[in-house]
Hints:
globular
Amino acid sequence: MRNPVVIVILAFWLLMLQACGNQSGMPDLRETYRYNDARPFGAEIAYRLVEHVFSEADFEKSRKPFLSTWNNQLRDSGTAYISICRRFLVEEYDAKAILDYVYNGNTFFLSSSQIDTVFLNSIYCEVTRNPIMDIPMETNLHQAHVRLVPALEPVRDSFGYYYTGFSSYFSDINDRYARILGFNENGKPNCIVFFWGHGKLILHTEPRAFSNYFLLSDDNYHYWLTLLQTIEEGTSQVVWDTYYQTKNQKRNPGSFSTFSEIFRYPALAAAFWLAVASLLLYILFGGKRRQRILRERPPVANSSIAFTETIARLYLQKKDNKSIADKMITYFNEFVRSHYYLQVATGTEEFRIALSRKSGVPLEQVNLLYGSIRLTGMEEEVTDEQLLELNERIQQFYKNRK
């Protein structure tokens, strides 16, 4: 059996290599949760850990709706179905099939930030979420965390990372069949287990807790390993869902009609007819153009940005870390001169004290930064590790300054 620590370390280096090859300098923050996606919000780490835990079970992938998967791929009992996605939208017959599947003695694990109300109503539960808090804006970024009940994790208090918070939670739980397994940063339940028949349904409202970024932060992969312990040990088959990761709308093949869906709801039908009437009024009264068409002028190209990108790309291709470090130090010193009106003198303690006082950055952090600058300036060749350390200390200064 492979060691999970080795799996996490290898995956971490794969992520680092991919980040270094990204010429734009910014990681791709799309939340895909695909099993083979090594980007921050892919689910490659979660997938590999499941393979490790259930190494003796038959491992398969599902690319079809649940009812079709159950009829053609899943066994009758002793199996586990795992789905991690942003939106879990199902038809009524799929929701019923999931409950029948669990009742027969199987485990269904679902983590999604938007669980279909059709499915939640079938188990008499309700989820509350704040979509605004999921947007990665500066005001939403903080040290967020989740935690498990002491019965599952008696040692570690919480599992955290720096990004948008975990705001979704179960606002209504069927206390007769459900038990709480975990909480979000606000102390609200975000993970429950629903016992039904001979099996169990495990629901989680924060799929970002199973992303590569979260699981690789501070050994957070133990969070996923602990939850996997709630699945029966004798599981003989594990199916990883890939269908609901890309399914954003409910469709019933052969019977779906856009207009029929609109007219099913009176409020939506009224809004549709209002939009049609507004369009007709616009055509009648605003159809004639009052002004001749103005040709669109192409925006002025910023050649300086293209030139800078070309030069930076050239330095990276030549692996001239020394020149890159010198440019970073020169730019930072110019920033200090223009913002804090200080004459740069890295060797004097008075300068570092004055910089700490004016910027609000702790003196210890300023000393570490200029220690890296002095060490880098003395070296004839700068390694990748030294360059990364210098960049990290400069970025920490920018982040902590007032």
